[in-house]
Amino acid sequence: MSVADLRINGERLWSSLMELAQIGATAKGGVKRLALTDLDKQGRDLVVSWGKQAGMSITIDQIGNVFMRRAGRNSALPPVMSGSHIDTQPTGGKFDGNYGVLAALEVVRTLNDHHIETEAPIEVAFWTNEEGSRFVPVMMGSGVFCGAFTLETAYAAKDTEGKTVGDELERIGYKGTEVPGQHPIGAYFETHIEQGPVLEDADKVIGVVPGVLGLSWYDCVVTGMEAHAGPTPMGLRKDALQVATGIMQEVVNIGNRYPPYGRGTVGMVQVFPNSRNVIPGEVKFSIDLRNVSSELLDTMHQEILAFVEQTSNNSGLHISVERVSYYPPCPFHSDCVDAVRNATATLGCSTMDVVSGAGHDAIYTARLAPSGMIFVPCKDGISHNEIEDAKPEHLAAGCNVLLHAMLAKAQRI
Ligand SMILES: [Zn+2]
Fold first, then answer.
1. How many beta carbons lie within 10 A of that of residue 309, not counting itself?
2. What is the mean pLDDT of each run of 10 residues along the chain (413 residues)?
3. What spacing in Å lies between the alpha carbon of 87 and ligand 1's midpoint?
């Protein structure tokens, strides 16, 4: 059999996903396995035991990232790595993150089945606390790994009960010894459910991911004057909410002005005093702008600032807008994007480009090594929800793409 004909075992992948999903299974069919809990330890132990059964050696770093290695012919080469995370949201699903880890494991199992050697080693990784639900910041393990923040910062992060990451890692036995980031990576791939509706809407099986949207977050406060809703004529009001709604509409307009990847969202609004017969005196709201290139995101940034200034001048109300978070767009390395695209061609998959609107560990690995992602559809585009669902045949197709993308890199590096 030629390597091009090689296929993963979709039933084995599915049954491993279902078995892992038993740990922390919820009544509604989801999973609650928060980072560094006893359940996370059980999940980690299970995946590590599968890795050992597949003949892999295990390395754990100081932030609890786990690397499972299948040797290559040339151990001096940096590994071709794939993985994701196995922690979940409190009302999470079976596939977010878990699919990326178990698809990578399935690639190794398939290579074992067929006694296929690769030039570079293959590694399966799972990163600590990607979800950021119990401990902030999100994407903690991969973030420490790439130096986005320090190990000390991560260790000091506390959950609502005051327990720290450092202590909890120690407690569950996953505080390793390797210095984060000192683990070479030749190339990194991550398979993931799309977490959006684009693939399903277009009836495509594989999303080739050219990159991840950058985001710019703002807090906006409009200050007006509270007054009685009855006695105060329309022309004599300083209605903070009326002024704020103009800005909110412009946020959406800006998102629409830069298709296909422009996004403009107001997701959080607080009205003061929030009383039926009082003209609102103050409105606080969030602004979330996203796009795929730094230039477009910067244009959107300038436009919202200019609009706010103009609105303040026109209304005479004080308006503050402060940028509170910024992640630049992350274009993936063309070598990895091409490897994914070529694999879809080899396999004859229906495919389209889909940018990622959500954060993933691959954003951080991309700072250190060529990285790429593969998306598969999820039902109704829903994730971070117990009803999150995906079709076995789509998961298998994504895993086959991963197999061939990794094989191309592992033989060539
Ligand atoms: Zn995820």
1. 12
2. 92 98 97 98 98 98 98 96 97 97 98 96 98 94 97 97 98 98 97 96 97 94 97 96 98 96 95 97 97 95 98 98 92 96 97 93 96 97 92 98 97 65
3. 9
Dihedral over Cα of 365, 168, 92, 17: its sign = positive
Question: φ, ψ for residue 214 (rounded to 5)?
Answer: -80, 160
Indicate the residue type of 236. L
Q: How far is CA 55 from CA 5, 183, 275, in A?
A: 24, 20, 65
Phi, psi of 296 (to 5 degrees): -65, -40
Q: Tell me how far apart the alpha carbons of residues 171 and 53 are, in angstroms, rounded to a whole number.
A: 25
Q: Which two tokens stand for residue 13?
A: 């992948």
- CA angle, 146 then 130 then 284, to 5°: 100
Task: Report the half-sphere exposure of 283 (CA within 13 A, side-chain side).
Answer: 25
What is the distance in A from the centroid of ligand 1 to the CA of 21?
14
**Under DSSP, is residue 265 helix (H, G, I), strand (E, B) or coil?**
strand
How far, in Å, CA of 64 to CA of 174, rounded?
Answer: 5
84 C-alpha vs ligand 1 centroid, how far in Å? 7
The sign of the dihedral angle between the CA atoms of 408, 60, 368, 340 is positive
Q: What is the 8-class DSSP label of residue 78?
A: P
How many CB atoms neighbour CB 53 within 10 A? 11
CB atoms within 10 A of CB 325: 10
86 C-alpha to ligand 1 centroid (Å): 8
Rounded distance from Cα 20 to ligand 1 centre (Å):
15
